[in-house]
Amino acid sequence: MFMLHSCALSNVTLKHILLGVPSLRLSPVNNFLHSLFSQVDVFFNQKLVSPQSNTYPYRAYIENTLNYESTAKNTHLTAGLYYPQSPGAFDDITKSIASGNAGDLASSIKHGRILDLIGPLHCDVFNQEKYLLNGVDMQLRLVRSKDNFCLMQSGTGDYRVHITEATLLVRKVKISPMILLAHAKALAQTPAKYPITRVEVKSLSIPGGIQRETLDNVFIGQLPKRIIVSFVTNKTFNGAPAKNPFNFQHFNMNNLSLYIDGVQIPSRALQPAYDKELSVRNYYTLFMGTGIHYGNTGNGIGRTEYNPFNFQHFNMNNLSFYIDGV
Length: 326
Prior knowledge:
Blueprint: E1 26-28, H1 32-35, E2 37-44, E3 47-48, H2 56-67, H3 70-73, H4 93-98, H5 102-107, E4 138-144, H6 147-150, E5 151-153, H7 177-189, E6 226-229, H8 234-238, E7 256-260, E8 263-270, H9 280-288, E9 312-315, H10 319-325
InterPro entries: RNR_small_fam
GO molecular function: ribonucleoside-diphosphate reductase activity, thioredoxin disulfide as acceptor
């Protein structure tokens, strides 16, 4: 309701009254299929076989960003609504839409249209080649993310995502009776074992306004094969409608190193100077960490695009390189 109070010294020209509505920009966040869910739990015979964590969107986004080249990012990854985005527009939805591929994100839900998505789940047990034995029930539990996490908007409206239908596509194979008998004999002697590479995403808080922070005992026991370090604001991590949860920033960090049993990795700490655009060592870890720095391949992230993809990637399988080399 609008109320216009009368004024003794002026008249109202009724013919020229106009109604204005502020322009609203609304868009799903990147990698939307996986950003819809904060957690994915996998059960075999009612036993949990996946890590319990509410960081599933970050695992999926980081894996898609670092493990695929531009060709994949612009083709089959778009089926899950993953698009390469331009630096400088991550937190500005208007610039983001105008910058190119992010416009496809916004247009995908324009006027409340129904959107269909498809893609593989980022779970450890689905990344190995062995078949699930017969007689084992599998259950998946997908926990929805908050709408203010998976949607970006320029206004203050209450917008929500409604999933109308979800389908799990499963491929089955028919096993010969002889193989089934051999499986039964083997299982009588020892349980089935599935070799997996476990991925764990840990979220650690650093208080604002401090100049130095040491995070102790991040990993206890088995050392990971690879460690990726990145930073986002606490506000975007918890969901902020006007912010992009995948805007990984440097926060003017000027010194970063790991310590493993008291040994500094790398031997000469990463010491970027972002105010002077000097961060090539940090950038190069994107390729050293995956072992592709000597190959004819990449991940589609150029040197000038590094800031919103600010990952520091350490390969723990080659510690001597960090100690003796860099």
